[in-house]
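Researcher: Good morning. I'm working through a list of sequences from a screen, and I'd like to move beyond sequence-only analysis. For each chain I'm collecting a predicted structure so we can compare shapes side by side. This is the next one on the list. No need for commentary yet; just the structure.
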Amino acid sequence: MKDNILEMLKQGVVLGDGGMIIEARWRGYDTPDVIVEHPEVLRQIHKDFFRAGSQALQALTWWTSRTQLDRRHRWGDRLGEITRAAIRLAREASGGEALVGGCLNQTASGSWTGPYIFSPDNAGSRDRACAEWDEHIAAMVEADVDILIPETFGRLDEARLCLSRCKKTDIPTMVLMGGMNRMSDGASPAECARTLVGEGADIVGLVCGHDPVGVWPAVLEMRQAVDVPIACQPAGHRRSGPNTGVLREAMIVSGKEMAEFALKAKAEGIHYIGACCGAGPEHIRAMAQALGCERYPVT
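Model: Good morning. Structure tokens for this chain:
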């Protein structure tokens, strides 16, 4: 029987993966194109994370809702096919040994910064957002995903609505807010954690937003607010200072810093540890070495 993420977290740290979209771009491939046109590349990226030590792989379903697929390629009608393919490729990469998460995101109809389908004061927009998530979740359930991961939400109210759709299934749900010290609707990390746990989230945490140093105060605030497992996946590049809008080699966090973050997070009781934009398999390998879970040591 396949391990359950919640049972694994009771035993100790679970190491996730890194920034799939940016890693694909650095290798010369865009999303969702890489899922459809270059599946062998996507499978290899997942495999590289798995070999480094990842125990859970996040399928490349982030930013592939019907609206977002239509915006890029008029591929909205292929949502089910693309979602199932993304999850299958992640599972194949580990030979079924790693858990596979299906990622859901904010309902932005343009770029990731908006405009958004969801509007808190518009019932019609809420219904449309729910329909987008429901369709995406149904495809993930059909693909037998192990974890549902609403992630990088900048508003607590939108994250709550997405969580309510996930809770219609019996799949463990990990809600990751954008790694900020305060959300765009004014909610603090502690408020996000308490509210989401109160509404059924199995795991809560932060992703991206800041590098390991910048995300630390907010994730500790979450850790102190609730008793459920906490996840933290900081960016693998600097998010403050000059030229942060462009990912350049000089902005990349070192493997040493990521390893130190992993040890610090474990010591503070943060047991789902991973990374995000700018963090590649080499960062996960450094974290795995520090945590003692490197799967295929390179000698």
